Amino acid sequence: MAAPQMVLYDDDYKKIKEICTKLTREANAKAIFLVDKNGQLLASAGDTQDLDSTSLASLTAGNIAATGGLAKLIGEKEFSILFHEGERDHIHISLVKGKVILVVIFDQRSSLGLVRLRVKKGTEELARIFDAMETRSKTHTGKEASPFAEITDEDIDNLFNE
Questions:
Q1: What is the largest CA-CA distance in the chain?
Q2: Tell me, what CATH number does 135's domain have?
Q3: pLDDT value at position 148?
Q4: Quick check: is 5 in a domain?
Q5: Residue 84 domain-assigned?
Q6: Residue 14 covered by a domain
Q7: Residue pLDDT, tens place only, 41-69
Q8: Is 2 part of a structural domain of the chain?
Q9: Which residue range is the domain that position 54 belongs to?
Q10: What are the DSSP calls for the chain, one per residue?
């Protein structure tokens, strides 16, 4: 089942982008991607122009889904951190709030220890933003609020009848 859509406002995006940029610098990473569990790219930082970010986002979400299945087979809820080591580049993948995937691509200029240390701090900062987003999206009854809730059928009819 697909994860519910989240509403990302401009202020939230700017804060998230700032954290990703800071994490790229402090972890000495090549690139950072923030992806939702549906495979949609939310933000990126670093040297991303030579990467197919759409494919990376969807494959990362698939990777998380597949390892989630493996976790359940052995009695775990999920694996919150994944690491792939290549000859030149490495990928560190972690879950933020169980909803968003943080992908860090790094090479020999950094180390797994440094990346893990910086990711821990970065995910705490990102979690605070996503907590605030979730709190803001709740209505008085505790249900998810839609950004389109205030639009009526009459508003839609008027839009197309003009």
A1: 60
A2: 3.30.450.30
A3: 64
A4: no
A5: yes
A6: yes
A7: 999 999 998 899 999 999 999 999 999 99
A8: no
A9: 10-161
A10: -PPPP----HHHHHHHHHHHHHHHHHTT-SEEEEEETTS-EEEEEES-TTS-HHHHHHHHHHHHHHHHHHHHHTT-S--SEEEEE-SS-EEEEEEETTTEEEEEEE-TTS-HHHHHHHHHHHHHHHHHHHHHHHHHHB-TTSSBPPTTTT--HHHHHHHHH-
Q: What is the dihedral of CA 124, 44, 109, 89, to 10 degrees?
A: 110
Cα 98 from Cα 96, distance rounded (Å): 5
The total of structural domains in the chain comes to 1
pTM of the model: 0.80
Question: Does the pLDDT of residue 89 top 50, yes or no?
Answer: yes
Residue labelled with tokens 């989630």: 68
- The pLDDT assigned to 10 comes to 87
Q: How far apart are CA 98 and CA 53, in angstroms?
A: 21
Label residues 41-72 b or e (16+ Cβ within 10 Å = b). Answer: bbbbbbebeeeeeeebbbebbebbeebbeeee
Q: Residue 6: pLDDT band by 50, 70, 90 thresholds?
A: low
